[in-house]
Amino acid sequence: MKKRILFMLFLMVFVLVGCQEPEETPSETLTPLSEIAQTVTLFDQPLTANISLPSAVQGVGVSWTSLNQARLSNAGAVTRPLHEEGDAVFVIEGLFTRDDEVHVERYDVTVLAEPFVPRDYEAEIDAMIASFEFLSEPQAERIIWPTQIDDATLSFSSLSPTYLRNDGFVLQPLARLGDANASVEVTFTIEGEVFTRLLDVAIAAKPALAIVDTAVYDFVSIATEYLVDDSEITLHRMNNGLMFVDVFDFLALVDGAIVYDELELNVDGSVVEIVLPFEPDEDFPLTYDSYHLVLDFENNTVTVNLFSFFGGIAQSTQTDFGAGLSLISYEHITYDPVVFDLSFYRLELWHHEDQFLMPLDVANLFFTGQMYDVYFNGDQLRGADTYQLLDRGADLRSLNVTSFRNTEIPMELRIMTYHYFTFVMDHFYGLRDFMVEETFYTFLADLNHNFFGTSRSHYTAWFRTVYNLDEPHSSHLLHGFHTVSRDLALNPINGPRMNRFIGQLQSLCLIGDSPSEGVSFLDNDRIAMITLDGFSAETPDAMRGYMDEIIAKGSVQDIILNLACNTGGILGTAWQVMGHMTDEPLTYQSFNIGDGSRITAEYDTDTVAPDFTWYILTSPVTFSAANLVTSMAKDMGIATIIGQQSSGGASSITTNILPNGTILIISSANVLANSDFESIEFGIPVDVAIDPNRLFDEEALIEAIRP
Description:
The chain is an alpha+beta fold and 707 residues long. It is 23% helix and 29% strand. The protein has a 7-stranded mixed β-sheet with strand order 18-19-11-10-9-21-20. Strands 16, 22, 26, 27, 30 and 31 form a 6-stranded antiparallel β-sheet that branches.
């Protein structure tokens, strides 16, 4: 009964509720999109790492557009700027969409730059050095230096120019010495910072010396001062590019240029000794009784007791350049013998079977008496004396007429020319100590010349090199036999000293008002001026004529020897001129840069000096023998020096024939000196100065003599 009542009550309630009127539900209020956008806090702090850009915020869809994709991608990838670029500040746009409703919100974004982390330059440099292929094995070919690696700039400087040039060209040691090490300073410039490292570069030894071919060549002597017979001689072309000759064959070849019959030739195993003995001379006692030179073929050395050997073995010239001169005293202070280490210069002596072979160029340097040369042009050998070569005439030009013209010079010959030049300059160049501290390898290393290029650039390099010496005694005489002169860029680039000399020569002597050679009279014939432009074989006769004219005047008291435009000549004739100035013995001093020996000699002339007061007029053009006359006259007190300081010039000249056929003129090892044995290379100060613009003005000359 109760269950039924309860059911009815439930039904009644359900019916009553179901029949009520429904109430009206208010519409839902939505958050504006702009407010939703403001709830995004992703960009409130600077970004340092990737972020997750939401695709919806509070149920509202969002798409993102970065206005700096390089720093923040639309997907939220962050790329931080480098430290030096600074923080990146830009805008990212969020596009909020809900049904048809759209809102764009712009957010300021900061992406922090990378923190400053110092670069490990040393580690980077270590890595670069590890990549240098030229450090992996001994080098035989030119090294191409890397100049840029990433942001590092590199430069290389060789501290071992005997093995490696600054330009990377390798100078291999001899096979008998084995591989060598060259020290190289490398400069790294990174971000303005400069670092240096010293590296050791292994240099491979040259192949062992070997004969490539052997042939007999004609020898023709065209010399006029030395009587040398034409003949023939066997030469061996070696794998180092040089021609080799048997030392005994060569000595016999140049008989007539040297006193061959007076030489004693001795052989002891691998040692050859060449001796020129002296007869004792009571008038000029010496501390030695012979010149001797020793060739040690095993140790590859040459020893000479005195540098005088090289000129002492010379035969007398046909012309007597010392006519009228008598030697009345002679003192020669000598020092220790000189040992030439040929290996240092990649030159070799080779005892091969029964022959004692040596480079033809070295034989020519040692055994021709210094005023005669044997020139090899590829087809034949030609002999010539220095005097005719200096004339720069047809005899000189005939030397390099050869079938080798316009052919490429072998690389080995280019390299050995480089070494041979250095050898000569280190031992036989009078201005060596003014030019280098130790070796001319350093001098050559600093020159940006293409010594190892094609024939044209190679020969041009040597032309320019001799003018890099910047001194008037050294010049280019003949190009080599693999080219012709019209193919060369033979335009000398002179240094400051030569430019001054040439400028003074042109302005003062060529286009100025300098007097012509001869005698003139000043101050009512009380002053005579003798002008000599040079000292030639004809000068002594001319001087006698000038003096006769002066004496005939009967009124002359003072004589000016005008050497202002005199650039030198033959010492013997210069001394004969000095014989007119004094009856005192003419005192001469010199020293030799090769062995340091010193010579003091006194000469008498066959001239009786008349009684005049002498003056010597000098200028920045007065050079060589004229400079020596000035020095001797000043030291002896026989003349007053007026004008401007002389140009200088302390050495006689000698030819230097390179293996490539180039002929250079250089200052010889014999250096003219004052009474204190100081080189007179840079001129003699005057006693009375004359304005350079009035050097030949009569009033200025009179005032200098009679102030």
